[in-house]
Write a structure and sequence with these properties.
alpha/beta, 36% helix, 23% strand, single chain, 2 domains, Rossmann fold
Length: 270
């Protein structure tokens, strides 16, 4: 071990310095894209979208699954005005808000995305009108300290069927933020992933996935052949070959999976 690191560990591990060590750990974690994510800059999404969208051609297709109030969709359109954004939002109140945006480049679908077609139960925070907290995994509401839970019956769909119906052969960017249900959304893409029709997938990974017993290893299995990165405020951490100790960190984070050709195209625009 590096002598400086040894000295630092010896110093910080002393009882009187543990609070200082905890503060440094938090700073280091945020620098590596773990924890926080209070806004698009801290989460690294603004950095990533600025670079990735600039590498795309005319009229790229972006799917925003779990669009909430539409902040992500609007950021995409701010950066890439000619993008075609399709926003999926099952929460009726929030979907109606999205309809009110009135941008012709934004299509709103009032439905949840999953691995089946039919009807699903959506659990929301009943303590706050128009709350952005909504999930198909009720256990995850504990993480938000939700006491009053409201259930909604909402339409659910597989994305592979939706893409066929819309005549969409390729998706430039798929963003998923579904509070622990992300893997089910990917499962609903079926053959679209197998034929490499999705260039890039961005998804949140956090404590909700621990409750869902879902690991990044599972995402790697579904997205075979993709390169995985964790977003930071000013860059991306290459996760490299799978190692549980560096991949399976259940702190709030945004992960990007890119096909090699999409990654190469983005890097050329450096």
């Amino acid at each position: 071990m590096d002598p400086f690191k040894r000295l630092a560990i010896d110093f910080l591990s002393r009882q009187r310095n543990l609070k200082r060590a905890a503060s440094l750990f938090q700073v280091a974690s945020r620098s590596l894209g773990l924890g926080g994510n209070l806004d698009f800059h801290q989460s690294g999404e603004a950095y990533f979208l600025g670079r990735y969208l600039a590498s795309l051609g005319i009229d790229p297709v972006v799917l925003d699954v779990g669009a909430n109030r539409g902040h992500y969709a609007l950021l995409v359109l701010e950066i890439k005005a000619d993008a075609k954004v399709i926003a999926f939002e099952p929460n009726p109140e929030l979907a109606n808000l999205l309809d009110g945006i009135g941008n012709p480049r934004l299509k709103v679908v009032h439905a949840a995305c999953s691995d089946f077609d039919g009807e699903a139960t959506l659990y929301t925070n009943g303590q706050e009108q128009g709350s952005g907290i909504a999930t198909m995994l009720p256990e995850s509401l504990e993480l938000h300290q939700v006491v009053k839970v409201v259930q909604h019956k909402v339409p659910a769909m597989r994305l592979d069927g939706f893409l066929r119906q819309q005549g969409l052969e390729r998706v430039d960017l798929l963003k998923i933020d579904t509070e622990g249900h992300e893997l089910k959304v990917l499962a609903g893409l079926g053959a679209a992933i197998e034929r490499r029709a999705i260039d890039c997938v961005q998804f949140e990974f956090n404590a909700a996935h621990a409750l869902a017993r879902t690991f990044l290893r599972d995402f790697q299995g579904v997205l075979a052949g993709y390169d995985f990165f964790r977003l930071t405020p000013h860059g991306m951490v290459d996760l490299g070959a799978y190692r549980p100790e560096t991949w399976e960190l259940f702190q709030q984070q945004n992960v990007v999976a890119l096909l090699p050709e999409a990654l190469e195209r983005m890097l050329k625009g450096k």
